[in-house]
């Protein structure tokens, strides 16, 4: 069988279908039924589960098994699947730690496919962090950190952005509801956040953010606004000293290195149109400081991208929604945004001669 590379067919975007009890499988099927997957997309997951979920929801999708490196089956309503078998039967909405290793196996297959030159990018449907940990992966905290380690890099950056901000090809904001928000710390208990904000981490994160905004999003000299950690950015040290002792001196040093990085600003008023109009991205100190605003502005129509990886990885802006799993009521819009972004970034890399291979 000729390899895809030999036939110069674009390499696939791999969609890991995520937690089997969650909404990931059905969202992937819904996009396939609507013919809303870009060409050269392939799902990874249990093919029986996908077929059964399609049948239960009345989705007219034909799941067709194939292997990495083989040509993808095509046709209306066809969903190519690289199969990974569940470890235990699965009902929608019911978590089972026995399937944690299955979820990890789907991710490992997707990374391996990028490493072997059989895939161009990965889009991840949501997984459930708690059940992965309960299933024996004690140090697991999320895709972002798992992919960092799987790819052997020291640092990555989680950035979420609204659809138009992800696909904009020029600097500047398109509208008040468009946001790009990156995080200094990701999946940490709040108690641990302050200690994790060090000059070294802030420096590494800022450089990755500036460089990927430029390299992947075509913003030549990104303008980044940085949130303070404490209320009112520390109120001159009266409400916390991290701004004075860590954040401000680090930003000063980064400016001296040529980055357009501003702040630290009080986080409560930074996310207002006048301030946002002057920058290309906001760097928040912790998860809910940045993502609560992003999800208020664009939940369901935004996506997550991991910056600083040697491969393209995008994801949804939502979780496993166990309350909706198996009902067909969850929206596949964010998964669609994430897959389209992955396809565009992969095509961009191919066109510029950079590769997604590790
Ligand atoms: N990319 C990822 O893998 C990812 C992202 C976020 C959360 N999670 C994980 O998901 C699990 C559940 O997290 P949570 O409860 O905080 O958030 P959640 O996003 O799963 O659910 C929050 C609310 O949003 C609704 N919702 C979520 N997705 C929706 C969709 N596509 N359409 C319509 N409504 C939707 C849910 O029904 C629920 O009311 C956690 O384990 C979390 O860590 C994973
Ligand atoms: N922080 C993400 C969010 O709130 O949407 C989410 O937990 C996913 O993280 P990973 O992509 O690292 O799994």
TrEMBL record:
Binds 1 divalent metal cation per subunit. Can use ions such as Zn(2+), Mg(2+) or Co(2+). Pathway: Cofactor biosynthesis; pyridoxine 5'-phosphate biosynthesis; pyridoxine 5'-phosphate from D-erythrose 4-phosphate: step 4/5. Its cofactor is Zn(2+); Mg(2+); Co(2+). Keywords: Cobalt, Cytoplasm, Magnesium, Metal-binding, NAD, NADP, Oxidoreductase, Pyridoxine biosynthesis, Zinc. Belongs to the PdxA family. This is 4-hydroxythreonine-4-phosphate dehydrogenase. Substrate binds at residues 143-144, 295, 304, 313. Homodimer. Catalyzes the NAD(P)-dependent oxidation of 4-(phosphooxy)-L-threonine (HTP) into 2-amino-3-oxo-4-(phosphooxy)butyric acid which spontaneously decarboxylates to form 3-amino-2-oxopropyl phosphate (AHAP). It catalyses: 4-(phosphooxy)-L-threonine + NAD(+) = 3-amino-2-oxopropyl phosphate + CO2 + NADH. It comes from Vreelandella vilamensis. It is found in: Cytoplasm. It comes from the Bacteria. The active site is located at the dimer interface. It is an enzyme of class 1 (oxidoreductase). Its EC number is 1.1.1.262. Its main location: cytoplasm. A divalent metal cation binds at residues 187, 232, 287. GO terms for molecular function: 4-hydroxythreonine-4-phosphate dehydrogenase activity. The keyword Magnesium applies. SUPFAM superfamilies: Isocitrate/Isopropylmalate dehydrogenase-like.
